[in-house]
Amino acid sequence: MATSGVYSPTTAPNPKSSWCLVPSDHLDKTRFAVKLIEVVLSFVAFILEEVVSSCLSCTALYFFEFVSCTAFLFTLLLLILLSTTLHTKVGITCWPSLDFFYTAGIAVLLFISSCVFASDNGNTNPERAAVAFGFLALVAFVADLALIWKCLGLPWQRGGNTQTSNGGPAQPTPEAEHLNTPVSAPE
Predict the structure, then answer these.
(1) Higher confidence at residue 154 or residue 174?
(2) What DSSP string describes 119-183?
(3) I need a surface site. Which of 60, 77, 109, 113 has the fewest CB within 10 A?
């Protein structure tokens, strides 16, 4: 075909056509690894909690179960959304804020549930291991928060994203003519 010679030298493959977008605008390789560690540690904490066969006070166990399962499932969902093109189909535009507040919320819940479960359990090996992995998952979530803060800053300090002009914020251009200028009458 005669046209293939014209188009082939200038056509380049699209590097963003891959299903995995790491690194991307929302997730770099380091944060991807930390999020993967969060998923694994919260999953192990959940599995170890499920191995517990009997409990003295089951409220602490059930609360820890809920938090570790939530941390596992929702962090896995967030990891899948941010590392693929699926995040463009959801309709959410504030991914950095959502990621920060979700990570902070899960870190607080993991801290509370791990402390409560550590103080109120039967002191069996599976319970102690579950608490240990709960605290390890907490450390991973806090490390993720530190990385978010270091790389992106705090979400509430971003303000309005104004366009920059020559390195500084764009200044509004003054009007050339005022609409209500009085017309001087001839005398």
Answers:
(1) 154
(2) HSS---HHHHHHHHHHHHHHHHHHHHHHHHHHHH--GGG----PPEETTEEPPPPPPSS-TTPPP
(3) 77
